[in-house]
Amino acid sequence: PVLYSYFRSSCSWRVRIALALKGISYDQVPVNLLKDGGEQFSAEFKAINPMQQVPALKIDGITLSQSLAIIHYLEDTHPNPRLLPQDPKKRAQVRMIADHIVSGIQPLQNLSILNQMGEKKMEWAQNCITSGFKALEQILQHTAGRYCVGDEVSMADLCLVPQVFNAESRYKVDMGPYPTITRINKALLELEAFKASHPSRQPDTPAELRA
């Protein structure tokens, strides 16, 4: 497999976690979203992903984009360890939390949106994240065990950690009001798959940001 990724892309990070958890070795091709106006806009990369976004994964003779579609494929083809619970209610809760982050928070504070916000980009990002986290904190109080849904790592957790990283490191969001999110995030960052896939440990991580 070949993963087209950017070290700080939260969508790419989700996929890196899934690959690490499932023990799938892969080659990584960095796509710098800032260099020369963004390498994702090159003709070469547009041929790989017409949406001009990372991640994209070449695997088993196909090319997939969209992080959750990639993770679902990995789940279908490498079912262990399981990232979707067998219980239908828990499975629905995992998908709900993943969608909450992937659709309801992350796209609103994505690079393409922030570039249109001008001087208000930081305020905009903070507002998008805090409104999403208020709802997410409430949801997790009903679903969480050690992790987002019970005590097993799931697709929801793969979405949570990169979003918390964005909130804390990039947009300086006060995490005080979100104790459940903070507790789960801390527990997940102790796991090797989350450490190995961290933005500070990627081939394209700038020297000054390396762990």
Largest beta sheet, briefly? 4 strands, mixed
Tally the helices. 9
Portion in beta strands: 5-15%
Low-confidence stretches: none
Order of H and E elements? EHEHEEHHHHHHH
CATH class of the largest domain: Mainly Alpha
What does the model show?
The chain has two domains: 80 residues, Glutaredoxin, CATH 3.40.30.10; 107 residues, Glutathione S-transferase Yfyf (Class Pi), Chain A, domain 2 (Up-down Bundle), CATH 1.20.1050.10. It has a four-stranded mixed sheet, with helices on one face. With 211 residues, the chain is α+β, with helices and mostly antiparallel strands. The two termini are 25 Å apart.
Key terms:
alpha+beta, Glutathione S-transferase Yfyf (Class Pi), Chain A, domain 2, 2 domains, four-stranded mixed sheet, 4 strands, 8% strand, globular
The gist of it:
By secondary structure, the protein is α+β, with helices and mostly antiparallel strands.
